[in-house]
Write a structure and sequence with these properties.
heterodimer; A: 2 domains; B: alpha+beta; Cytochrome-c3 Hydrogenase, chain B; three-stranded antiparallel β-sheet; 15 helices; about 10% strand
Chain lengths: ~525, ~400
Amino acid sequence: MTQLSVPWRPRAKQQHGPMAALVAGFAKALYATFAPLVRAFPGPLLIGAIVTVIVGVWANYLVFEFVDTALVAADTNVVAETGLFGGLLAITEVRAGLIAAGVPGAGTLCYLLYPLQYGLVRDVIGAGGLLGFISVIPLYVIWWERKVAGRIQSRTGPMRVGGWHGWSQSMADGIKLICKEDLCPADADRPLFKLAPYLAFVPAILAFFALPFGTYWVFREVDVALVFILAMLGIEVLGVILAGWASNNKWSVYGAMREACQMVSYEIPMGMALLIPIMAVGTLSLTELGDTQSGGWTSWIVFRNPFTFVAAIAYYIASLANCKRAPFDLPESESELVAGFHTEYSGFRWSLFFFGEYAAMFVVSGLCVILFFGAWYSPLPMSLAESWGLGDSLIARAIKGLLFAGPLWFVGKCVFLLYVQIWIRWTLPRIRIDQVLYACIQVLLPLMMVVLMGHTLYELFVPTHGLVWSIFNIILSLIGAVAVLGMIFIATYGFWNRVGLVGSLGVETLPGS
Amino acid sequence: MSEIALETRPDPLAGTDKSEQGDVRTEEMLVNMGPQHPATHGVLRIVLRTDGELVLEAVPHIGYLHRCAEKIGENLAPYQYIPYTDRMDYLAGMNNNQAFAIAIERLAGVEVPLRAQYIRVMFAELNRIASHLVAFGTYGLDMGAFTPFLYAFREREMILDLFESACGARLTYSYITIGGVTDDLPDRFLEVLDEFMDYFEPKIDEYNQLLSFNQIFVKRTADVGVISAEDAVRWALTGPVLRASGVNWDLRKSTPYEIYDRFDFDIPIGLPGGSEGVPRAVVVGDSWNRHIVKVWEMRQSCRIIRQAMEQMPEGPHIAAKTKNLKLPDDEIYIEIENPRGQLGFYVRGDGTQIPSRVKVRGPSFCNISVLNHIGSGCLLADIPAIVGSIDIVMGECDR
């Protein structure tokens, strides 16, 4: 036999490199600067931070939209490109457009905007904004998940860091994780072990680049955006399998193999569920799919007919499996496999898995929203906005963005679906691997085949906006409305009566009551 | 790993022709589950021989928490040994104190006042509830449901508050001692307890709605790790594990100790699927029954506590002479019903204050022995389901 192998080679002395010193110094300086402020004004600072993030992330979009509007208003020959980053704007044309629109100081503004005429510059700025958004999303979803979990479990969740309900807890955790030692087991396959977290993280971010947040709010308008996003989510699985395999840990191998098993079982029903809205609309472009649902909540694809309704539910179940969320969190089930594929990871690499997971959660929720739940449109029909005759002024656009359509609606719906994922995770037990395979292959797959066939026949033989079509549409729309309103009512009722609902002794002991 | 001698057992795949299993040549894998593993409830180590997700063999290895508890008993006077007994089964300290106290009282002929016996029964049943709450909560945790754990601990916390008000300790009580209990009940104790019972009893239904009758939970536990009644008796299983197999045997009913014959309560036993609202997939003796028997026992404990509160007499809480007892040159073996099963104490005196032999029969120790019998041939994810349903405490298993 070989000699006894030590899991981690002992180190004589912890070496702090210049990078670690820099990070530690930065964290200290950050703390010294902001901690007194945060303690003094927690509420305004939180709101200010959120507003800053939103504005900062989307500022470039706003600038471009402004330019495009000016161009259209000036009726120049330049067609406003569908993707804001797609076309090259000649600076002279912008100048002409701005002067025609009567913008004061147009010349100076044009020189400031001069770098933007190069596609590369616009792409870098857009990608930076998107990366910022993707970095902020997991931080706040993790914090929010912990708060929701706390509420569900009658405790408070994070309360300390940042002052107001621990709103900066995730940032503190992130700094801690970055400062931790990057361990690699002695017997692990080093190159693969180091590569795996990136394979899990990068595709989740790439998926964002084709995900539209609004009609023009997309980094790259791709004709086959749906296929691209599905491909990216598929690569993420490879990172997980690689991590499990490269760790050279038997439990991690179990996690990896489970992930592989799970993927082959959920991908097919998930793909079939996604085919149904594609068939209903007739395009693979997510922007076009979203734009067909502008006629209020009855025009959302989920309420179109019974088959799309079933497909939406099936997609949501499969998407839980895609994100390794409970009850499908078998690859990392901590009570069976300790932590499954990421048992051996620590620090920054470990946090990459989590960033990837939460980013993927947002992406699958986003797909669900675009394909089934009215994309970036509010439940009010756009025709209503037009009948108000608001015009095209900035205020009118703001009202339209808040009430009828816009990225805020998209993000809001995504956040709601994320909340449902969190809710499910903290309520249901985990199912077994054979039950995952059974549920996906023997229940969901035949069901989706029937639904696919049924939807094909429905689209072929039931006339659109005919009597049968309308009856189903109205009934399903009412079911959806009642479900959402009922949920809001029950949640509000439960919140206001939370003291009375827990019983006599709970009053003193339930936190937050 | 190859040095570990495994008990040879029939291979579940022995009958099948290996060439029929497909083109891929597969190998068995030896996996070490524990002693540091979240689902082993302490420092249990299980060596699993697996073929993919299929577990061919699950051999428990114990002894990581051995603290010479029995040998210590042979070097201390009984009243000094009481604090060591509640460190064995640290989730049911009261019951362990009670078992040892009864053994010494019977051996030395100490008369226990009636009030003390009522207090003992009340605290033993409260501790049974607390212990079952932990079992229920951690079982949900083993299944991947996190929330019931917090609910169970919220209620357990109230019981611990009650214990703290009575004896000052929250985990290792040493409250039940030789000849009675160390202190009388504090002021307003029964009122607070009554308030707690009113609060707690409806919560049991909540637990069932949340976990026991959850479809996924039933699917995970029904027909998993089935122990037949004959097997349960043959493997000397006791407590909820035995009763879940359909054997109606509880020492509180069959050979009542203390004053258990004065109370009216039922012994819940495992039921087949389809009867009395039990899910259809359930089989007598499976993990679901082992779980639900504990939940039902909490309700019966509530009944006993309520009766004890009503009948609570006045009087002294401890016998006059409890220390410096001379143990006669005699031996005694008694068993009581611990939350996990029958806890037995064998004590042999030799005319001095210090026993010459103390031996413990731990329910966890006996119950875990069945693991390989029911654990071989199941899936990997069923091992936490089985271990959790047997509900072991390694402190008492290893002693």
